[in-house]
Amino acid sequence: MNKIDSNIVNNLRIYSSKIASSSNVAELCYNATPLVYNLFASSVKFNPSNSKWLNRDRVIVSNKLLPLYYGILNLCYNEISLDNLKEYGSFTSITSNIAKISTPGIDASSIKNGDVISSAVGIALGERYLESLVKEEDPKNNLVNFYTYCLCTKEDIMDASSYEALSFAKSQDLSKLIIIIFDDISNNDFKDDLNERFSSIGFEFESLKIQEISSFNNAVEDARKAKTISIFQIKYKESAEVEKKISELKEASWEEDNVRSSFEKIVTKRLTNSLNKWDLLKEESIKNSKLKEIVNFLENKKIKIAFKPENIKINDGYEEELLVSNNKILNIVASKSPFILCTSDIDFAINKNNITKSTLMSKENPLGRNIYFHNRVLSMAGVSCGLAFLGFKVFASTYLVNENLIASSIKLSLINNLNINFTFTHDTFLNSYQYSLHSFDEVSHLYSIPNLINFRPCDINEIIGAYDLLSQFEQTTTLILGNDKTPKINGSQSKYVPAGAYPIKKETEELNAIIIASGSEVSIALKLAFELSYYGILIRVVSMPSESIFTMQTERYKNILLPKDIKTFVIDFNNASFAYKYVSGKDYILDINKYTFGGSKEELLNEYNLNTDALKARIIELMKK
Q1: Per residue in 216-226, is it b (16+ CB within 10 Å) or e — as a string?
Q2: Core-most of 176, 319, 444, 527, by most CB within 10 Å?
Q3: Domain contains 582
Q4: Is residue 260 included in any domain, yes or no?
Q5: How many structural domains is the chain composed of?
């Protein structure tokens, strides 16, 4: 390392030492600095004048390395100033201690260990798909040709979602993914566990010591030429000598101008020629409408979907599984853009949440738009976030009972405002598999998550209404579906879904009571209302396809739909803790508050007093009070 390089490394160490949140983070950044600097000086492809240049290499960084990474970004892009660096960790700063994708140079963020791995796999998968789209149009065109680097720690690798994501990445045989693990081996109780872990899923990885800069650079160069995923383990030890140096660096000053000038000369010499060539390639490529569409997608991350629900006509005699109905509408939407992808940990034959005119994505078939994870539910959700970080609109599907397993990915998606719809199937125990644990509090949990828009449609009309909104939204949403055969329900209207709730059955004369229901329970509520009319109880049935949207409506609309002086019941065959705001007491919530497993539907309905006769009797009794 020459004098200029040493000066830059020293200043990067000064910055990270000053702001590191703990001694462990400070030592990690101190030890990693020479290698990460060399990575950007010698290998990473980026455009100093455009932090959003579409063909840049993507670098995904563990939060523990952010103090160092912000220093690197200060060198790479003028948008990150010295003042920004000094604001590290403050609430309004672009250099927060959890990465923001609005920060120049940040391609993905994480909120827990392992997120960076799944996101990196998703971005690498998306790169291969986009590159294949380009090659399909012009086999010799290198318009999209970037690598994804993941700089992480051993804690990230040890997370279960990482193991799943890497197993999936191996099955896809991604070739432009480079994972660099910084591993403190001072108190390593798992001496060979990384080797065992990676070898179990078919990986080999190279282990380097922190001082081996030339070996590291050679390894990265070899990785860029390789046709498979490359993984490096960078070993270092904590030491009293390093602690002393960090303590001294905290008192030193950051030489921004000199360091920036030196770094600019290094990268200008390396990158100017290739950037100029790429600009000419882009200028020529956008003369082709399909290639121009790819350029616009990567630069703007916008997907235009011309979905017209009024053009969809449903016969009065229509009756199919709700999952089949969903598949039909999903495919109408998916046909509008090649940047819509479907992911699932369940066989698509079961959840039917796939693009029927496409195929499964694989190494041999990189243009398949259906991505099957073979029961890897954690990586399915995490990799979907990675695809969405790149700009794709993703429809990710699993059983409702798995909601708790992917809650952190939903949170990550919401924090970053990612364009993902999480589709959950088997919305109650009525249509869950008999041999599995049934859903319980998952719906209420989804309803409680801030800023999450949920849809639980009762039939194909409400599915159409949900997709009318989903096609316009560029944010995280969910779609909760039953899988039973369902007719087009009399009174359902797609145009009322944007209200969140509406009267699917109006009272014929004086209003005596209201029943609120969603999804699979709407048909049950309608049956109850019909039978209770013989007892002189006239009921309005309110279908609530989106409780989260309904809460946004005006108080006037809410009060007209749900008058406060009318007894109101909520039927929900989950634990409906969300419903207390709509009723006067827990007796008016007709739900299930115990875990269920085994048994037939009839046995469970009888056991928990949820069959039609029992529900009817409960309502009649409460109406007398």
Answers
A1: bbebbeebeee
A2: 176
A3: yes
A4: yes
A5: 3
